[in-house]
Amino acid sequence: MTVHAGLSIRSRLTLWYSLIVFISLIGAGLSVLWLQARLGVARIDEELTAATVAAAGVLRTELNEGLSLEQGVQDLMEELNLSDEGFAVVTASGTVLGSKMARGPGIATAAIATANATPITVAAGSSGARIRAADFIDNEVGVRIVAWKSLAPLQAERRTLERAMLIGIPLAVLLSGLGGLSIGRRSLQPLVEMAVQSTRIGIRDLDVRLSTPNPFDELGTLARAFNGLLDRLGTSIRQQRAFMADASHQVRTPVSVIRTAAQVTLSQPERSVAEYRESLGLVVRQAQRLTKMVDDMFMLAMADADARPLQMDPLYLDELIDEVLDDIRPLAQSKQIAVLAESSGETPFNGDEHLLRQLVTNLLENAIRHTPSHGTVTVALTRTEDCLHLQVTDTGGGVGASDAERIFERFVRLGPAGSEGGGGLGLPIARWIAEGHGGTLVLASTSPLGSRFLLTLPSSAVHPATSTLGA
Fold it and tell me: What domains lie within the chain, and their CATH numbers?
């Protein structure tokens, strides 16, 4: 059965429900008719057995009184009256000595003469008859007593059942269809209400959620799943809004500085070379800061969209850290900060070299930025059986307890207002890179004497073929 796609769910459910009820009733009706026929025939066979026993009893009584077989059969026919069954006495040679039938269609003499102990159905009128025989032996008298009964009453019962089914099954299907419509309407009403509620949810109504009368049934489960989707969508939209607001705020500062420097420089018809160089130097620094900020935002945008797959290659993590230290030392020396390195030797690893280099650079730049002059930044790489640990420790002023986790949020800067430096994206990018490699990045400890960041990478990513790495 093909259900038209344009029908409502309630109509389709009703049609399917009615079809299933119809098929079930037809199956049940056919089973009842089959069972009625089997039980009816068995009942008739039992009645035929009782008729032969009754006839045998009367005939034995007559013979015991000293009558001949013929006289005994004649008295049997006169004395025994059966309501629905016919009976006869047949000799071993097939001669019918006598027969009697109260009512019903006649039965052929040949069928009576050939009947045996196994009940069979023979032709008799329009409905047929059931016939069987039983051997009778008494005082060397051997005959067969045959009994039969018309199948007309059984067929009348069957026709009554069929008429009842012809009326009852369509009526039951109709009532089930009406009931299905009512049940479908009541069951799907919460779904209609949920659809109405969902149309009211807009970009400005991120806190509106669906509700159902029963939160624990299937529709309640659907509502909870949809509300969960709305929660995630609302969180994403709020983060996007916050990202745009924070990005606008962060970008505005270097742009304003560049514009102000240019306006001040051009406000006088002539400037000295030193003044021009100072102004252009300020513009260059702010442009570099703006460029780094845009690059970081682009990196985070690609990370959010899963558009930056890792390019895993075998490398030595200790060598990568040494190269980053060589690049970062001029920045540390300009602030008179000592950078110390501790390593447990060669550390092969499988990872994205570009991203890992950026991770280590971000950690070191953050440490140098928050370490005062004559301070120390220490980088320690250790290896255990299960994982690799990279610790970056500074001697800065530490991080407040309330800011320990906020520093990994985007655009969070804990430096003094107006200070130059990053845009608050270095640590979020570093954590994303760590998690992309199956590791973690946390602020392990902090105090007024300094902070320690701990990067943990799984040893399963360690590349075992060290000879290949060195080739």
Answer: 9-157 (3.30.450.20), 241-304 (1.10.287.130), 313-470 (3.30.565.10)
